[in-house]
Amino acid sequence: MSGKASPQGGSSSPENKPLASPRAGANDDYDPHEHRQTENPTNNVESLIHLLKCSLGTGILAMPQAFANSGLITGIIATVIVGAIITHCLRILIRSQYWVCKQKRVPLLTYPESMRGSLVAGPPFMHKLAKPSAATVDTFLVVYQLGVCCVYIVFIAGNIKKLVDPFKEMRIELHMLFILIPLVAFNLIPSLKMLSPFSLLANVLTVIGLGIIVYYVTSDQKTDEPIDLWGSPKTFPLFFGTVLFALTAVGVVVAIENNMKTPKSFGSNFGVLNIGMTIIVLLYVAMGAIGYNYCRSQCLDSITLDLPDSGLATSVVIMYTIAIFISYALHCYVPVEIVWRDYLKPRLQKKGVQKFWPYEYGLRIVLCLITFVLAAAVPRLGLFISLFGALCLSALGMCFPAMMDFCCGWPDRLGPGRIIMYKDILLFIIGLIGLVAGTYVALVGIVKSFTD
Asked: Do the Cβ atoms of 47 and 266 come closer than 8 Å?
């Protein structure tokens, strides 16, 4: 097995070895980390930079509106709490994947394969869930990544509309239509290596743009209305969904750990994950607080839309529009790989198909069209962010890792008084409540936005 990481954060050639007894492996000398063979592994500093770069997307730009839904003090406290919970869940996800790899004696496994393996090791009532769990995780991953792409289309079109409206006002759906062909063409680039120069450009533009945004929101105010310190329970689920969308980069975190030169240092107490997530949470709290102080209840879906009409502010909108356009292809690459490698290509091979490229490019076009149709049907950036954050990341970032941690500890590694079991049950319940409440409130908000 090569051990090369895939977009799902696992192996590019999945192993299907039977799982050993849950009691086996505690004293096993097999260490998956020592058997990984990754091309161009990253050191700790490079891994930390990758983790930080992934936090500077549309999520951080939506934090001022998230604070408008939560209130200033509630937003600060809740962001720190949610950040701590998400960090812990990501740690137990990485730990559970390592444990399943150790049991199967393989270097790497994808998130879905690890989920299946952990449920097999759990209590008997979990065993029936093992087989469909992999497809369930894949479904959530695909839906989430396509949701991100929908968010990006709405973001790009909304920012172009802000630039064009002073000259000619048009519906946002028309701007989406204008960018459709360039998006499809860019999405046909077949490899991440070919996208890497564009990714570098996107990172540079993002950092510069973020610096200019901070300058604006700290030097002026959009309104003098009073600050809401505590918010309302009715809009808090929207805040929860936005924060989850912003903070929970499940696939990215797993992929970074899988490609590290020293993966054991990733989840240590002062490792890459804890340091990176601490910096990220502080950045999001800062942007949410100062952005909300700038625009108060008038915060729009993205802070770029709240900036004044000036040359410097316009340059920020242009930079972020280009950066997010580039990021669209990077995020669409993940669902393409999942659907193509695990589902479509194996079926074509069984049918004896010789030429695969027309089908793969057809898949890329279809997925791009799906995101366009959804974005055009519901051009509501903030509600889209909350919807996909609550729906997908509550499951991927909280519920599933809690289930895996419980099953991997079953039956005799659940701590004194089975405290780990109760902790995992609590995490699962929090994730489930966030999923149901956040999804419901976001859907109600979407429906209301069309009827008002």
From this structure: yes
